[in-house]
Design brief:
By secondary structure, this protein is α/β, with parallel strands linked by helices. It is built from ten helices and 14 strands.
Length: 330
């Protein structure tokens, strides 16, 4: 049997590049399509790379004419919540309109399987935790709304065009490739664990903690951190489900346990052996006290089992990447 031919859109980014490595390890032939607006060409370690933009309909149609894809995995989105509030047009253009361009090219080429990178931001402020798939989806910012729009569009495309999809709602992706080949390189960086580790390595003067008066044991926000490799394992299982004729599905991906900002900082200090300077700031608007996933449905339906669930492991892998970056950066 020939290897599966998979298009990874946004495969030069943080999660996308780890996914390309996972797919290659599973014997797939991978083509990455990325405009490099936030990704890195040197992060695409396997398969073929094509630089292009989802806004370019001609380039998309040419791509699908030249290659026969078994499935498409879509990671190319704008992801900063705060930016989405002040630049909503950017988020609706990139996350909604450009995804429609991709889906249109897929339909014309009769590619019927789609894995979508969604987010816990579709749920808004949770009414209960841990959050399962039945939780109401009431996003409170343009980023979350743009992702929910695509989830709803995919429901319509399934009914009308039999285009099968799996939407995977991430809670907080973290960590780095256990083999040290890949890691998190956002510019600007907004995620807690890499920010904390940049403070530990000296690339950042301090770490800001936004609010210490939440209704949590230590007063700081609690989040569910999922290792990027475990995230990719879930994507592979979801893809296999579609490739073998599975129905469209929606899953929440997390470890099912939360850690506070203070716990993350304490763990980072232990892993790095460095004291990290903390600056206390006011709460940020829209930050829920607790965001934790209930991943039971993904575990049951996909047979998924996170391999790197401990916070210490997640931070250790991220720290190995951070120190490697320090050694290679002039």
């Amino acid at each position: 049997m020939r290897p599966f031919n998979i298009l990874v859109v946004g495969g030069a980014g943080y999660i996308g590049s780890h996914m390309v490595k996972t797919l290659s390890a599973q014997g797939c032939h991978v083509i990455t399509f990325d405009n490099l607006s936030s990704g890195h060409r040197d992060a695409v370690l396997h398969g073929e790379f094509i630089q292009g933009d989802l806004a370019d309909k001609q380039a998309l149609h040419a791509l699908f004419q030249q290659h026969q894809f078994d499935a498409v995995m879509h990671f190319a989105s704008s992801i900063q919540v705060g930016e989405s509030v002040v630049k909503p047009a950017l988020y609706y253009q990139n996350n909604v309109c450009n995804t429609l361009n991709l889906l249109d090219a897929m339909r014309m080429a009769k590619v019927q399987r789609f894995i979508f990178s969604s987010t816990a931001a579709t749920f808004g402020n949770p009414t209960y935790c841990p959050i399962d798939e039945a939780h109401p989806q009431l996003p409170i910012n343009p980023y979350g709304r743009s992702k929910l729009m695509i989830e709803q569009i995919l429901d319509d495309y399934d009914r009308a065009y039999a285009l099968k999809s799996v939407c995977l709602r991430y809670f907080h992706a973290a960590g780095a490739d256990p083999e040290g080949e890949l890691g998190e390189r956002h510019e600007p960086e907004t995620h807690l664990i890499p920010l904390v580790l940049q403070a530990a390595s000296g690339r950042r003067a301090h770490i800001a903690v936004y609010g210490n008066d939440y209704d949590t044991p230590d007063g700081t926000c609690i989040r569910d951190y999922i290792h990027v490799t475990d995230l990719c394992d879930a994507h592979w299982l979801a893809l296999k489900s579609l490739l073998h004729g599975g129905a469209s599905q929606r899953f929440n991906l997390g470890n099912g346990q939360g850690f506070s900002v203070k716990q993350v900082i304490d763990c980072a200090q232990q892993v790095s052996g460095t004291r990290i300077r903390v600056v206390q700031e006011q709460r940020r608007e829209g930050d829920p006290a607790i965001l934790v996933a209930n991943p039971a449905q993904a575990i049951h339906a996909l047979g998924w089992a996170p391999r790197y669930a401990s916070l210490e492991t997640i931070i250790s892998h991220a720290w190995a990447w951070e120190t490697g970056m320090m050694q290679t950066t002039p």
